[in-house]
């Protein structure tokens, strides 16, 4: 099993080191600040980064569905907003799709232009599911009657559901984008159209639900057992939290796996836990396995509250900074430019 750590989600954008001369030329203070930030980031490895307890779980936050909103002609209200219950589904999953119509906010209105006529309901809402080859998968009828997945009758949120069929599933280990075109029409034939979508994902490996933890070289390692159907490259990511539910660290690992059962490690760098001042037991609050052989990646589900560790003491973990050479070198070069 080949293993290579990859950059964490939270810090990925920070690892594109800006041109040294550009930063230094802006202001000496900015260059000095950037150098200080690089030295702070260098305390931790790229595969394990601290997470502020005040922030949302980064894995769960990354899976939040995006709301797409489209007004009528010339910006006429009401605007149609559409979204899904998740950003990815697999064969057999029930996908829920939502739509609502609301007047535009003051910030979205051009006060210098004549106000277009606002259309009135009631509205009939339908959705067309189309795959990335343009093939229609289904036509859906949305409802606002409190039935079949609609949470509350008459609340203005229309709901449709669809069970992902095996007949249209992607090959195992791959995924494809599915678009949904949502149309709302009233009795006057006023129409609102908005586009949403999701990922139809068929991962090549699955988390089994088995985990084990150990202390290794001053860091906490949680191993996850996975069952692999097809050989390929896989990304495992997880968030470690305190017993009180505060996020502490995000860890990622990239591995090439052959078919069969394997244990894959997530290493949470010990200095993060030492500096947090929090002892165990810790919780693997979220974890997900992604098949990364082709684009788009085949996302697996995010499993929450996956594992509780032994009651490690925070003083058992290393107090030594990781000292990332690339970031320390960048900081040194910035500091040299500031002194010129």
UniProtKB/TrEMBL annotation:
Residue span, DUF4785 domain: 205-295
Source species, domain of life: Bacteria
Endpoints of the signal sequence: 1-24
Keywords, comma-separated and alphabetical: Signal
InterPro entries referenced in this protein's UniProt entry, alphabetically: DUF4785_C
Pfam families documented for this protein: DUF4785_3rd
UniProt keyword Cytoplasm present: no
Official protein name in the record: DUF4785 domain-containing protein
Source organism (scientific name): Zhongshania aliphaticivorans
């Amino acid at each position: 099993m080949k293993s290579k750590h990859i950059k964490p989600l939270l810090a990925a954008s920070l690892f594109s080191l800006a041109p040294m001369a550009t930063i230094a030329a802006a202001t000496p203070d900015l260059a000095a600040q950037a150098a200080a930030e690089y030295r702070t980031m260098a305390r931790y490895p790229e595969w394990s980064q601290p997470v502020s307890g005040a922030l949302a779980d980064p894995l769960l936050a990354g899976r939040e569905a995006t709301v797409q909103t489209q007004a009528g002609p010339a910006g006429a209200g009401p605007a149609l907003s559409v979204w899904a219950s998740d950003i990815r589904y697999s064969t057999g999953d029930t996908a829920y799709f939502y739509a609502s119509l609301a007047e535009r906010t003051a910030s979205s209105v051009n006060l210098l232009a004549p106000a277009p006529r606002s259309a009135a309901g009631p509205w009939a809402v339908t959705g067309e599911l189309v795959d990335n080859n343009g093939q229609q998968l289904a036509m859906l009828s949305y409802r606002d009657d409190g039935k079949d997945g609609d949470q509350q009758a008459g609340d203005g949120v229309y709901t449709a559901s669809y069970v992902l069929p095996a007949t249209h599933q992607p090959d195992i280990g791959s995924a494809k984008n599915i678009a949904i075109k949502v149309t709302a029409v009233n009795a006057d034939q006023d129409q609102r159209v908005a586009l949403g979508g999701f990922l139809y994902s068929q991962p090549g490996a699955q988390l089994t639900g088995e985990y084990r933890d150990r202390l290794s070289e001053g860091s906490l390692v949680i191993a996850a057992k996975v069952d692999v159907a097809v050989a390929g490259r896989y990304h495992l990511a997880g968030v470690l939290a305190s017993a009180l539910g505060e996020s502490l660290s995000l860890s990622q690992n990239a591995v090439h796996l052959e078919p069969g059962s394997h244990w894959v490690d997530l290493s949470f760098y010990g200095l993060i836990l030492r500096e947090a001042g929090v002892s165990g037991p810790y919780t693997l609050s979220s974890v997900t396995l992604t098949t990364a052989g082709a684009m788009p990646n085949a996302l697996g589900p995010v499993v929450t509250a996956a594992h509780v560790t032994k009651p490690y003491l925070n003083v058992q973990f290393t107090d030594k900074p990781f000292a990332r050479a690339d970031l320390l070198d960048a900081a040194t070069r910035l500091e040299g430019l500031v002194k010129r």
